[in-house]
Amino acid sequence: MTYFVLFLALCFVLGGLAVASNLSLYYGVVGLLLASVMGCGWWLSLGISFVSLVLFMVYLRGMLVVSVYSVTLSAEHF
Question: Which residues cross the membrane (predicted)?
């Protein structure tokens, strides 16, 4: 169980680094998804289900909508 929690924490950090280091918005959204899912799994494995639900609802839904909107705007060519 300890290795599983450490694996989730490592994937969470790597997902955050993927968001911060990618210049392409498409790969940044994939990193955001990875970080959010791993963060939720990390908190669930520690037994903190309410924080996991809040992280999923606020972080994933709010930031993903902003990311999809910015990807849509950058894909338009006038």
Answer: 30-60
The tokens for 51 are 């924080």
CA angle 61, 12, 62 (to 5 degrees): 10
Residue 14 corresponds to which tokens in the numbers above?
Answer: 């790597």
- The separation between CA 45 and the C-alpha centre of its own chain, rounded to angstroms, equals 17
Its pTM surpasses 0.85: no
DSSP SS3 for 67: helix
Cα 20 from Cα 42, distance rounded (Å): 20
d(CA 21, CA 2): 28
